[in-house]
Amino acid sequence: MPILKSASYGFIVYIFCGVSLAASLDVTVTDAQGRPLANSIVVLRGENLPPIDTSITEVNQIANQFDPHVTIIRQHSAVIFPNLDQTRHQVYSFSSVKRFVTNLFAGREADPVNFESVGIVPVGCNIHDRMHAYIYVTDAPQFAISDIDGIARFNDLAVGDYQVEMLHPWQLSPGSVTRDIRVRRAGRDLSISESVGTIGPDPRTPRRPVNNPLIRGNPFAR
Ligand SMILES: [Cu+2]
Questions:
Q1: I need a surface site. Which of 23, 61, 112, 143 has the fewest CB within 10 A?
Q2: What letter would DSSP give residue 219?
Q3: Pairwise CA distance, residues 171 & 40, whole Å
Q4: How far apart are CA 142 and CA 73, in angstroms?
C-alpha cells in the first residue's frame, strides 16, 4: 500500500473515515404505474443529520415561468423572487400554509417572503396565469427534489435510522408516503423506490385544472 507509506498518519485517518463512515441513499419516486417522477419532494429525517442551509433561497422568473418549478426550504426560511424578465410580475399564493402577495415588481424589487409553517405552498403570478411554482416548507434537516429519472440522492449518511418522506406537488391522493431506512454498515449505498400514487396533469399545461386535495387555497383553481 504505497499511499500508506508516503502519507502522514493524520492524512490516512482522515481519508479512511471519509470513505468508511458515509453511505448514500438513492430514492426513486414513481407514479402508480411505476414511471419515475421528476420534481418529487423527498425529505429525510434522522439523528445528527446536518441541516441544509436555506437562508438564501431564490425562485426566479425567467421567460414568464418560475425557475425552479419546485423548491424546498426549511421552516422559518425566506424566499427571494428575482425577476429576470423584461415584464413585471406579481407573485402570490392563497395557500393556508402561507398567504402572500408581492408588489408588481421588476428585478429584485420584491421583498423576501418568510415561511413559518410547514406544508406545500402553490405560487402563481397575478399577471401571467400560466406561471406556476411550488414551495415546500419542511421541518426536516435534509431534502432533495427528484431529477428527470425520479431520483433524489442523499450523501454522507452515518450508520443509523432514518425516515424518508415523499410526495409530489400534483399527486391526487392526499398526504405523503413515508418509509423507514436503516443504514447498517458503513460505506453501504442504499436505494429504494416508492410510489406516490396517481399523478394529476402538470399545472403548467394550459387550461388543464389541477385537482389536488393536498393543496388548499390553490391559486391555479381561480
Ligand atoms: Cu408574471
A1: 112
A2: G
A3: 10
A4: 9
Domains of the chain: 23-221 (2.60.40.420)
The confidence band for 56, taking pLDDT boundaries of 50, 70 and 90, is: confident
The rounded Å distance from CA 88 to ligand 1 centre is 6
Q: How remote is the CA of residue 177 from the centroid of ligand 1, in Å?
A: 33
User: Does 17 score more than 90 pLDDT?
Assistant: no
CA of 145 to the centre of ligand 1 (A): 24
Whole-model pTM: value is: 0.82
Residue owning grid cell 387555497: 217
Residue 60: Cβ-neighbour burial (10 angstroms; 0-12, 13-18, 19+): middle
Q: Are 58 and 79 in contact (CB under 8 A)?
A: yes
Using an 8 Å Cβ cutoff, are 145 and 72 in contact?
yes
**Mean of pLDDT values over 53-58:** 92
Report residue 208 CA to chain centroid gap.
Answer: 24
CB 105 within 8 A of CB 90: yes
- Please say whether the beta carbons of 120 and 203 come within 8 A: no
Q: What's the gap in Å between 89 CA and the centre of ligand 1?
A: 4
- CB burial of 23-53 (b: ≥16 within 10 Å; e: otherwise) equals bebebbbbbeeeebbebbbbbbbbeebeebe
